[in-house]
DNA sequence: CTAGGGTTAG
């Protein structure tokens, strides 16, 4: 491009026609040639040429595409007779920079000057409206597009649907879609995405099945929609379907990035590895966002080493906030607090500014590793050093930090000093702390708040009930059970799953429907004796039943967690690492039992519960019994 | 010119 500029600057017959300049500005647009553009601008200025509206439009486009929105804005504002083209250029520029209110401001002025919007104007204006989420404004814009006779233009109508979707007006979006005379793949995609974001999975699926032509975005929208609605299985199924050889669409990097969290969610390590290999083969693994998604996938599948490996493969200058956050959270969930802290400091060194998510990761990392004072210091520095607002979730982390360490009074004190109303996560942390430090008074206090805040959460009743049971307070246990019934709380059934050779095997507590039930149960029946021989004492306080000690012990042996581990030991060769995932928090008895199992059978067992990872080796757990 | 996106405590 410089070749275009040099002769122009040196030539004795320097162009005087604004249109010549305009042509060169246009040539510079979209090629990050800011320096050359500025040079040309300066040259023009020295020649005393004031840009007309047409030239200004080209300059705006050049500056906007080169990252200098300020200059673009200045040029727009200093042009005296703006044309519709100039308005379109600046509207496009502001909208791309997410300067939504500026976009609308300019659009209003454009209307005031009685210029018609065209199909280059409305999509950008509507995008800004969508970003702001102002339905009323959207309706006005809709009306305006009708007046200009463009409301059924494919682009404009699709943008209108997207706007209604993003403002939460799904019905209006649907009506418009149904009325459209001509639809585009994008029109379908916009609505599908809207339904998915609204959790209307079935409606999304219906449209997807119905649409005449699907492109890669349609497929990816469905996959990420399933993932975000917690339907990992459906996401993976759809991914497989579209990856078949005869499929007319091919996954791209966005698809890969969208499907990886589904592997993470279901702890499908083998599946995740397969997708990683697939991405490598197709050259789709070089994008930093894909690499970040890989870090998250490996971390959630229990493979911290692979997570770190993928993180290191991201080019240092491309490690953005999300990448750092993912790595910090990975260490935190695996109980590697010191590493989380070290990673945080590296991030600061690298000049990346932390956000709220960084601190939830960092603080929970400190919490899981007992780094109480370090955590408290970071909490204090959030506002003052890093200018990150302390939000409710950060208080929840710090209450957890103090609570785990047994500093219950301080934790309670902090709750009373919170600048906002303490919610369920804060009281939940306190309840857990009361439980693990056997402080019935604190636990009762927290539980009472929780019964009001989230009456449907069975976990709270179970936790308190277990504490009553442990203290032999059977009357209170009965009362709680009554309360549980009257509130018609559904007990969230515990389940665990293990992946063997790429296939997931799911176990429910006490369930006997698995094909190998007999083997599993006989394995588990022999287990207590073996464990008792090396010093195990069952902790029956984790069984929520007012029954004899013997029976309690039995129901413990069939916790889903133990079924999955028994199945794993029976179906893998000696020495294979077992990875088990549980939908609830791991119970104390299972935790103790797995420690023994890891020793007796010489296995490394990695357990992921709702909160974190436990890595059992040689009779010890990575959490140091601190969870 | 419109559509799909990786990180969030307990």
Automatic annotation (TrEMBL):
Coiled coil: none
PPR repeats: from-to residues: 153-183, 184-218, 320-354
Pfam families referenced in this protein's UniProt entry, alphabetically: DYW_deaminase (PF14432), E_motif (PF20431), PPR (PF01535), PPR_2 (PF13041)
Domain DYW: 535-627
UniProt keyword terms in alphabetical order: Repeat
Superkingdom to which the source organism belongs: Eukaryota
Family the entry assigns: Belongs to the PPR family. PCMP-H subfamily.
Protein name (database record): DYW domain-containing protein
